[in-house]
User: Fold this.
Amino acid sequence: MCLMFAIDKKLPIRQFDVKSAFLYAPLKEELYIKTPEGSKQKSLFLRLKKSLYGLKRAPANCVRIPLCARCACKE
Assistant:
């Protein structure tokens, strides 16, 4: 759909791969993880604010970020 829009508006088309895209996606729901062993944190659990590899919702969370926010381009 984005490709069709770009072609219709005669916009330049670029391809890129963001290796850490999943790590920038904010989480909608509250999700907690157990503090890793050896951590200096006093609490037993930590709340995740961003998506994480291995989460079932990680791909969906990544897609929710606007394209221009992911590639830091001007709209």
